[in-house]
């Protein structure tokens, strides 16, 4: 029972009721229990087989174990006098995010293809605790990102006096951290969540002497975990499976660093503040005036700090820091002759190219097929434009539709763009590597490749039914949403993906209840289901102010399990709530 004070004198009382089974749950139970009050393990096995719930098992023994687990959890008993499920037990099973999740938690994709055949969970300025201008640098955000499955970590290396090296965001007021602390943080957390390789991208602003010192520090810290590779004569990169437990270094060879020039992207200005939700994905792309500015600097393809460096090396690499060069497993190649030449594929070499988010948009618009061909073998890294001072992010779908492996995101930020990134990498067991769809890797008989700018016909239809929600009263204070009454929840559900697939719908508002029941269904036509993400947001309606945040999740459509599923919700930073969840039904037709 919850009490809400009204007019300082009277109290209005609301009871938090236990949600009963919704009609969809009752219908499924009645159908498989054949009208009886209990569902037997054999009837549960038949349901699992009919709905292709391979995640729950397929044998009678699997069904019996599931029944036992439900009874143990719900009734807290170790020895059972019965071995069947009541309607309430069945409802408990379906509404459990542990027993009935919407996607799997195991690596299931082929991990034996070359590394460039995968999208890789990538961080940008991974050492920053907050904004890009004045926040503290630390090893803690690196550890946090790695534990969340991030596989690419970025470090900016700067001299600290004559004989030491630190990590900081150059040209800002960020407080530096010692390189050693960052390396130790990587070593301690690299493989706690995923055993697949970690790539460290370095922005190097060091003298040859300090490069040698860095080479020794990296070698001593990681030892046999380091992967050495002659990328000068590499035609195909090893697979994630072959590189399990390995650390890879990616940067430019010393002699290829350019003189430092203007700020990133040659841009100045203020990054717009985002509210708790962040901008809608379609609002995260560049304006035409911004793209026009980029075109004026088309020859400065790599304007990230890493690609500019801080010195001009006029002697050979071997005379500068051979130990350092030997560490580089993925070379960041310096393009010459503009964007078209930068995307040219060398049959005898593999390299990494970095483009800003704006230059990617321009490249896709003018050289879409070249971008696809480049990413079939080489690595393409995309980084945020220089005016994202508050560590906001951009729309990742443009990069994924073009085959870019490393969409570098500010993991310390928040908002809808980051939710999409987190949703994408919930796929494949959350291991940080997601295999590209075949259409991005296919080459036709005449050399034709996928055109990211071409609209296609729908391949698949997804039906999503929002049934009900529960758990907010356990994760939030009773007056969190409204001081005078229980919350008024509604759900926004939609698709992020190919331009033709994007959609957003919403349910009705359910007033004054902690356990809302909606029973509303939505249908989405998908032209590129392989890269589509299901967006789910819960809002608490406020008549006078901006709606409150009630949870969110993004899920890869290609991994959705059909049937009634318990969908856990996350806070705005991507941390899962303990109890808050939705009951939803998914169907592909």
From TrEMBL:
InterPro entries: C2_dom, C2_domain_sf, PI-PLC_fam, PLC-like_Pdiesterase_TIM-brl, PLipase_C_PInositol-sp_X_dom, PLipase_C_Pinositol-sp_Y. It comes from the Eukaryota. GO terms for cellular component: plasma membrane. GO terms for molecular function: phosphatidylinositol-4,5-bisphosphate phospholipase C activity. One of its GO terms (biological process) is phosphatidylinositol-mediated signaling. CDD domains: C2_PLC_like, PI-PLCc_plant. It catalyses: a 1,2-diacyl-sn-glycero-3-phospho-(1D-myo-inositol-4,5-bisphosphate) + H2O = 1D-myo-inositol 1,4,5-trisphosphate + a 1,2-diacyl-sn-glycerol + H(+). Its EC number is 3.1.4.11. Residues 258-277 are annotated as: Disordered. It is an enzyme of class 3 (hydrolase). It is a peripheral membrane protein. Pfam families: C2, PI-PLC-X, PI-PLC-Y. PANTHER family: PHOSPHOINOSITIDE PHOSPHOLIPASE C, PHOSPHOINOSITIDE-SPECIFIC PHOSPHOLIPASE C FAMILY PROTEIN. This is Phosphoinositide phospholipase C. It comes from Brassica campestris.
């Amino acid at each position: 029972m919850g009490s809400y004070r009204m007019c300082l004198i009277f109290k209005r009382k609301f009871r938090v009721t236990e949600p009963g089974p919704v009609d969809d749950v009752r219908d499924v139970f009645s159908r498989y229990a054949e009208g009886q009050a209990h569902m037997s393990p054999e009837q549960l096995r038949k349901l699992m087989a009919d709905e292709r719930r391979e995640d729950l098992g397929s044998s009678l023994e699997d069904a019996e174990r599931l029944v036992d687990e439900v009874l143990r959890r719900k009734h807290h008993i170790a020895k059972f006098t019965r071995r069947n499920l009541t309607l309430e037990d069945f409802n408990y099973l379906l509404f459990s995010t542990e027993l009935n999740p919407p996607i799997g938690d195991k690596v299931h994709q082929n991990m034996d293809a070359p590394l460039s055949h995968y999208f890789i969970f990538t961080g940008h300025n991974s050492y920053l605790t907050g904004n890009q201008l004045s926040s503290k640098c630390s090893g803690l955000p690196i550890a946090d990102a790695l534990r969340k499955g991030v596989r690419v970590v970025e470090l900016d290396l700067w001299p600290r006096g004559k004989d030491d090296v630190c990590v900081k965001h150059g040209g800002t007021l960020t407080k530096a951290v010692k390189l050693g602390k960052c390396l130790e943080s990587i070593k301690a957390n690299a493989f706690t969540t995923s055993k697949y390789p970690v790539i460290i991208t370095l922005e190097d602003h060091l003298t040859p002497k300090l490069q040698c010192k860095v080479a020794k520090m990296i070698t001593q810290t990681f030892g046999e975990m380091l992967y050495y590779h002659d990328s000068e004569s590499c035609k195909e990169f090893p697979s994630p499976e072959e590189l399990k437990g390995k650390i890879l270094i990616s940067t430019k060879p010393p002699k290829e660093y350019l003189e430092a020039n203007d700020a990133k992207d040659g841009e100045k200005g203020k990054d717009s503040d985002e509210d708790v939700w962040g901008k809608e994905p379609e609002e995260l792309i560049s304006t035409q005036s911004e793209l026009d500015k980029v075109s004026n600097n088309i020859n400065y393809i790599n304007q990230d700090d890493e690609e500019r460096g801080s010195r001009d090396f006029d002697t050979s690499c071997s005379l500068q820091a051979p130990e350092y060069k030997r560490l580089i497993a993925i070379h960041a190649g310096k393009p010459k002759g503009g964007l078209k030449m930068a995307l040219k594929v060398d049959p005898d070499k593999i390299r990494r190219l970095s483009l800003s988010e704006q230059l990617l948009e321009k490249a896709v618009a003018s050289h879409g097929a070249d971008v696809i061909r480049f990413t079939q073998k080489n690595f393409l890294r995309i980084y945020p434009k220089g005016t994202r001072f508050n560590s906001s992010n951009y729309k990742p779908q443009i990069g994924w539709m073009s085959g870019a492996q490393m969409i570098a995101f500010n993991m310390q930020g928040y908002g809808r763009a980051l939710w999409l990134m987190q949703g994408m990498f919930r796929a494949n067991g959350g291991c940080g590597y997601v295999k590209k769809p075949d259409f991005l890797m296919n080459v036709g008989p005449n050399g034709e490749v996928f055109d990211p700018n071409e609209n296609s016909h729908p391949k698949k239809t997804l039906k999503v039914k929002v049934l009900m929600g529960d758990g907010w009263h356990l994760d939030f204070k009773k007056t969190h949403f409204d001081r005078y009454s229980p919350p008024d929840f509604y759900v926004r559900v939609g698709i992020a993906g190919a331009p033709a697939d994007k959609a957003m719908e919403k349910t009705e508002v359910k007033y004054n209840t902690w356990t809302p029941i909606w029973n509303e269904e939505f249908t989405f036509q998908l032209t590129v289901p392989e890269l589509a993400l299901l967006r789910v947001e819960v809002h608490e309606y406020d008549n006078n102010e901006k709606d409150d945040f009630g949870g969110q999740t993004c899920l890869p459509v290609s991994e959705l399990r059909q049937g009634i599923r318990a969908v856990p919700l996350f806070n705005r930073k991507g941390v899962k709530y303990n109890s808050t969840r939705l009951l939803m039904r998914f169907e592909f037709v």
